[in-house]
Design goal:
Blueprint lengths: L1 E4 L6 E2 L13 E2 L9 H14 L5 E4 L11 H11 L4 E5 L7 H7 L4 E4 L6 H8 L7 H14 L3 E7 L8 H11 L6 E5 L15 H11 L2 E2 L15 H9 L4 E2 H10 L4 H13 L3 E6 L2 E6 L2
Parallel strand pairs: 1-4, 2-3, 4-5, 5-6, 6-7, 7-8, 8-9
Antiparallel strand pairs: 10-12, 11-12
Helix pairs in contact: 1-2, 2-3, 6-7
Cofactor: [4Fe-4S] cluster
Keywords: 4Fe-4S, Iron, Iron-sulfur, Metal-binding, S-adenosyl-L-methionine
Pfam families: Radical_SAM
Length: 294
């Protein structure tokens, strides 16, 4: 159970990944800013943990790239004063070429960067990065950070068929990984609707090839998670979640059943979602995913 802390506005990112589950990036930037005062975030965190201890890790994440938050190091340090539980950061890795970012991340216990590309061409094809973000600088920053980082480093590799799933591509990726001092490699594939409709999800054999060559663990089948909300109203609770993180039909149903909703109530909420103009409904891989537009 992860308690998420987001220090950035929605869709502020230095990537616009073709596979992004929240859609194309609206605010492409490589500038680090203090989008919100650290004190405000910490105050919200304090309020939450007064009544809740049902989490195992605090994860600094966002609907974009959290290392764009200029005071990230201070935020992590302040969180660590308030909890003995691990502090994790999920990052696309683009900013790891920046020494100040690496210094900020040294404060966390668990770091989860992505490494999907194996050269500049695949980097651009997968991530459509900000013009000043370069593959080699980001990768070299990851290597340097990994040699000094005292916590656990979990690498995530997102596979997109036709870009990074061939044997040749995976061998190149393995050569890059060999220079990184990491704890685990997780191999993933799009399980939620990606930003672009022409993205090809890798078949089972491609994922197995990646597992064998990279020596990682496949997590592409983990499509269903458990969600909770402090909002009392069931419908508003769902809207608050899908604005940040898309939910599929089974996750929404499980969320409502956890709140002791009847079958009729659940059916009615799905009907309201269907008519709500602020909700995008996407059919993908045989089921429906709900994404908040506003």
């Amino acid at each position: 159970m992860s308690l998420g802390v987001s220090p950035i506005p929605k869709k502020y990112c230095n990537f616009s990944c073709v596979y992004c589950q929240i859609g194309r990036t609206d605010h492409m930037t490589d500038k680090r800013e203090d989008f919100f005062p650290v004190e405000n975030i910490i105050d919200e965190f304090k309020e939450y943990i007064k009544e809740n201890d049902d989490y195992h890790v605090v994860t600094v994440v966002g609907e974009g790239e959290p290392t764009l938050y200029k005071s990230l190091g201070k935020l992590i340090a302040e969180l660590k004063k308030l909890t003995s539980k691990p502090i994790a950061v999920i990052t696309n890795g683009a900013n790891l070429g920046d020494k100040s970012v690496r210094e900020d991340l040294m404060e966390c216990d668990l770091l989860l960067p992505s490494l999907d590309a194996f050269d500049e061409a695949s980097f651009k094809a997968l991530h459509r990065p900000h013009g000043r973000v370069k593959f080699l600088k980001s990768y070299e920053g990851l290597v340097e950070l990994s040699q000094k980082f005292k916590g656990e480093l979990w690498i995530e590799v997102m596979l997109i068929e036709g870009i990074n799933t061939s044997e040749e591509a995976l061998i190149k990726l393995k050569a890059l990984l060999d220079k990184v001092k990491y704890t685990k490699v997780y191999i993933n594939a799009p399980v939620r609707p990606p930003a672009e409709g022409n993205i090809v999800v890798p078949p089972k054999e491609s994922i197995e090839r990646a597992v064998n060559i990279l020596g990682g663990f496949s997590i592409d089948t983990l499509t269903t998670g458990k969600f909770s909300s402090g909002i009392v109203d069931n419908y508003e609770g769902i809207l608050s979640i899908i604005k940040r993180h898309p939910m599929n039909q089974f996750e929404i149903e499980a969320f409502l059943k956890d709140r002791n909703c009847s079958e009729d109530e659940i059916k009615n909420i799905f009907n309201i979602l269907k008519e709500d103009v602020t909700v995008e409904i996407i059919e993908y891989k045989g089921f429906y995913t709900y994404r908040g537009l506003i």
